[in-house]
Amino acid sequence: MGACTSKPHKPNPYSSRNPQPLPSHPYDPSQQIPKTPLTPARDRKDDVIAGKQSPFFPFYSPSPARFLKKSPAPTPGGGGSKSASSTPRRFFRRPFPPPSPAKHIRAVLARRQGKKAASAIPEEGEEEGGGGAVDLDKRFGFSKEFTSRLEVGEEVGRGHFGYTCSARFKKGELKGQQVAVKVIPKAKMTTAIAIEDVRREVKILRALNGHKNLVQYYDAFEDQDNVYIVMELCEGGELLDRILSKGGKYSEDDAKAVMVQILNVVAFCHLQGVVHRDLKPENFLYTSKDESSESELKAIDFGLSDFVRPDERLNDIVGSAYYVAPEVLHRSYSTEADVWSIGVIAYILLCGSRPFWARTESGIFRAVLKADPSFDEPPWPSLSTEAKDFVKRLLNKDPRKRISAAQALSHPWLRNYNNVKVPLDLLIFKLMKIYMRSSSLRKAALRALSKTLTADELYYLREQFALLEPSKNGSISLENISKALMKQATDAMKESRIPDFLASLNPLQYRRMDFEEFCAAALSVHQLEALDRWEQHARCAYELFEKDGNRAIMIEELASELGLGPSIPVHVVLHDWIRHTDGKLSFLGFVKLLHGVSSRSLAKVQ
Ligand SMILES: Nc1ncnc2c1ncn2[C@@H]1O[C@H](COP(=O)(O)OP(=O)(O)OP(=O)(O)O)[C@@H](O)[C@H]1O
Ligand SMILES: [Ca+2]
Ligand SMILES: [Ca+2]
């Protein structure tokens, strides 16, 4: 057992001598999360230490989608919305309570603690170390020399899965170096999933080491009782505490400074094929307490993170309720889910309250799925149009319409802030892959659409094209793409199979692509569709297409383009899309063609 746990004044809350009290009725879906006033971190941590009733440990895990099936439960104080599409905010004269520590979704805890049903809920203390955990292999292959290498100091923080102490290397080349050690008790790892999570947390930290906004990883150790993750000590505290100390409101410039750092590290993770899945202000730490200095923000806690292949959708429900994206609740998501969480953080920074709030977990989920966050109440009317547009684009409920982290850094609200550099975005390669597999007809339609892009919209594409270092004649090939990716490669890219994905861009091996074609290939039709001016774009593009690309087509040709199988009566479905007079595409057909094969049928092809 690490020295951390033997400190008499800081008892280990994970020890069976100090069990977390269970909720009085774990089944009660309306169980209230206690109202959370402006709570300094110290108090809430002390609450846990003192063994008071914790709102963080609901032990029952009903299907997180169950709220979709039943009518919304009325919630006291008007916190729940009566109509599915109304935001609970409208029932409040005052803003929501200020942000407070986020709770993990029940399903996360249940899966990781091995609770299959309510009847499986153990008595207090039963879960600690024993039960089903006996035959689990809890060997990680980490060094066993923790106590000889490090001297442990004060506790500096804690979460559900671990607690963190300051420490110092006793010997070796890092001798004297102050570090942080996250201690994860093996007794808490009662399922294979929990063990795998810890294994992956270390693997990801190790692979991603080196980004300036990601906590630096030094080493991992283990003994009989714990896993120890040794990393850089961030002395400036959690972003959440900074938000609370500022009364929940940041100036736009202060919010930009936070956003740029968060987006930088998240864009980097996404390029590596890592999705964090638990982005919240508690999981960003400042390196120093000094607000005026160069204190940097660091992402921590990759405990729920995973590798995701470019074409893959994840399905396990993971995260913290206030920050969880709608598609996570629908069990089909990828890196865009992190961008949603960043949107929630941005909303909180700018106005001081949460965009989706209710007293119960199911109430929060309903709001996330159905409610539109308010941008009408103060201080929103006094904030810049760009700031509002930025937050709205992050909080688009459709992940295909949501902008990526790299795109967020090129949004007008941020693009001129402090020499922001737009990083390479995997999204362009995903879109290029679909483009290359499209028919010449769809390519022509996309080309027409790309000609309608405004200078503002072209900014991101220009930046991405420049990152691919085109040749002197202004074109790129597969080699440019692989070089640009290799420059950024870490071990994580292998895990997330990005090299395999690159092979799908093989047609570019034999030809080059100029900027004009690149725009057609890398533009996102779904994202453009989310803009107010979409109709204009599409009409204008259709006119251009009429001049250059429209031709009489066979219904079968269009059906195959759209991935419609022979069992579907294509004549009936597609009739509206073809002009009767000349057999060419109608406007509706043109728009359908722009969208191309639906992602579902594309997944089948792969
Ligand atoms: N490198 C660090 N430097 C300083 N403090 C840290 C560091 N890493 C973690 N902490 C503190 O410890 C707390 C818990 O760490 P972490 O979030 O990794 O644990 P967790 O159990 O996985 O949390 P969660 O409940 O969010 O899943 C952090 O919120 C932070 O206050
Ligand atoms: Ca955490
Ligand atoms: Ca965690």
TrEMBL record:
Database matches in SUPFAM superfamilies: EF-hand, Protein kinase-like (PK-like)
Every Protein kinase domain range: 150-414
Name of this chain's protein: CDPK- kinase 5
SMART domains hit by this protein: S_TKc
Keyword Nucleotide-binding: yes
Segments for region (Disordered): 1-134
Coiled coil spans: none
Lineage of the organism: Eukaryota, Viridiplantae, Streptophyta, Embryophyta, Tracheophyta
A single MF term (Gene Ontology): kinase activity
Family (UniProt): Belongs to the protein kinase superfamily. CAMK Ser/Thr protein kinase family. CaMK subfamily.
UniProt entry tagged with the keyword Transferase: yes
One Pfam match: Pkinase
Biased composition (Low complexity): 54-64
InterPro entries the UniProt entry points to: CDPK_Ser/Thr_kinases, EF-hand-dom_pair, Kinase-like_dom_sf, Prot_kinase_dom, Protein_kinase_ATP_BS, Ser/Thr_kinase_AS
Residues reported to bind ATP: K182
Cited PROSITE patterns: PROTEIN_KINASE_ATP, PROTEIN_KINASE_DOM, PROTEIN_KINASE_ST
Keyword terms, alphabetized: ATP-binding, Kinase, Nucleotide-binding, Phosphoprotein, Serine/threonine-protein kinase, Transferase
